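Morning!

This is the sequence you dropped in the shared folder:
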Amino acid sequence: MTSIDLNADLGEGMGTDDDLLEIVSSASIACGGHAGDAGTIRRVLKICKLRGVRAGAHPGYADPVRFGRFRLVMPLDQLLSQIREQMFLVRHIADEVDYPLSYVKLHGALANQTAEELTFAIGVFASIQAMDKKMAVLALDNSEQVRAAMAVGLPLIREAYADRAYTAEGLLVPRSQDGAVIHDVDDVIARCLRLAQAGEIVAIDGSVLKSKARSICLHGDTPGAVDLAREVRDALEGEGITIAASEPEVELPWDHGLGEGDIGIMPLNPKDPG
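The structure's back. Tokens below.
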């Protein structure tokens, strides 16, 4: 029987957490960077434990004013320190609640940057791997995030987005571009069904991308998010597709051919918002 994971970014102050946690099978919890604090983390983790929803950490640039959606120029050590602080906070609270964190999913601009830049992604994922070798990465399929997770030996969960347009190269269309976010409910449902059943995503130029993603992200910060998530789940289950947390892939690290000095190079200029 075919199954697929539905994940949502939660603890971001949108007021939809309770409802979405009745629909999704995985919850990526904001951990104090772009949004969230100890109170919101604890609350979401407790609901995850009660409902059996897989929990993950959702770190990003520490820029709550712009919701972590703009790339910041800073030394790599400073960025990694921000990520570690967010991870320490969410892991500490997970220990208090006695509910494990299963994965990390990067947020916004940080996610887009690691999807595009392999050496940068390796630097970020290596820092996460140093904290917990068993922590899986929820990574945008066909992006440099996948290659970086494999390079450092982190378990991998491949992800696709229900309501975001894709470039022909398999990356997300920047939010600054028209058509980047898909609002039509029927279109979103059709995309989710095609991904789950055929492993395909149609890019913004009409080309067809192959995808091994078995987790679909449903954004919680868009208008009508709960209704959309419920309709997506109903449509998938109506086709006999089970909603369940997907198992990570576990592979030995491969030789990425990069020297130690190449890992984690920061870009010189900020780019489009994530």
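Headline: Confidence is low (pLDDT under 50) at residues 258-274.

More detail when I'm at my desk.
O.
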